[in-house]
Predict the structure.
Amino acid sequence: MRMYDIIEKKRDGEKLSSEEIRFFVDGCTNGDIPDYQASALLMAVYFQDMIEEERAELTTAMVESGDQIDLSAISGIKVDKHSTGGVGDTTTLILAPLVASAGVPVAKMSGRGLGHTGGTIDKLEAVPGFHVEISIDEFINLVNRIKAAVVGQTGNLTPADKKLYSLRDVTATVNSIPLIASSIMSKKIASGADAIVLDVKTGAGAFMKELDDARELAQAMVSIGNRVGRNTMALISDMSQPLGYAVGNALEVREAIDTLQGKGPNDLTELCLELGSQMVVLANKADTLDEAKKQLTDNLNSGKAIEQFKVFLEAQGGDSDVADNPDLLPQASYTFELPAEKSGAVSEIEADAIGTAAMMLGAGRATKNSDIDLSVGIVLNKKIGDAVSQGESLLTIHANTKTVDDVKEKLYASIVISDETVEKPPLIYENISR
Ligand code: URA
Ligand code: CA
């Protein structure tokens, strides 16, 4: 088989066979195929696309390019959740204990954040003592014993994705539905989930700014998951503004605690209940979404969910007293308000820019090796649709510097106040299943 012929075939819009796709993925991973030929094929895929069968084949080849986590020693159906990335998205912190409280085993492999979207591990490490450096055996034991555990990415998972992503990054081929969908799904599948719930974000703060693009990506991932035997569904949710109020690691843990006690922000609570219900149903722990949602709501209100969170924190060395006393979390030295420059209704809180402002305060990593400040961030006091009077605080900045003028300037530029009344954006746009 020759790489030249594979490139030519895709260039001309033909379907690649499974042998050709495997030849390409294996050759990229072991270095037999030079970067220029791999890049040429990526560009051909960018323009010619792949049909569903090719996408599933590409995903499977990427999964098989490295280690796969075997979770078969955990009893029950392991359901994973993946979000395509948002600002202030605290859902994983809430969903892990919440669905565990309904009997669903949660075996979560997570990453650190890069850029303006915080990683779940960074957030959890804001809890004093909490650590994710556990072996896979300990991880599996914990899930069997207490239903939930989080481990840092270990092993040589999907090396083909690392290679292809690094080529896409420098050849303007990141933004391709078959390539994004196979990249994301290969990592989920290699980390061992039996079933997958996807939260595909759309809006100004999302990778897919337009609903049509988000839908196409969701459909592509749902199709891949189901074709390779993992029950997969997706919700398309709003990321035109940050989710909840808090953006920043310790601040988001505080918000997660509130939510697990049944007193969190409406949007964050509602999204967690919707995603969580889907997970409970896929895990066969409820017959209907309504039944699942009722159980999860009861667990938030009865204290069962927050108790599960405490057990989960303790099991990985964390101080569970933070649940009763969130002041034990790292706190910034200074706070600053951002007064509204005029009265009206908030019509835009651009999530991207809020994330970047939080990163400027030190909450996110500019590069892979930067240190982050777990205590800093932003807490919104208003969301889109809320009325505001001149001088009233739009948000509170938590910082460890005495002046934050550059951050304030960035924030002012990202918030729009309208003279007209403004409708709140919908939280969930669509539900995509097989
Ligand atoms: N996230 C991924 O993991 N892969 C992509 O290709 C794009 C976003
Ligand atoms: Ca939040």
Q: What stands out?
A: The pocket of uracil (ligand 1) is lined by residues 165, 174, 179-180, 183-184 (CB under 6 Å). The radius of gyration is 22 Å. The mean pLDDT is 95.
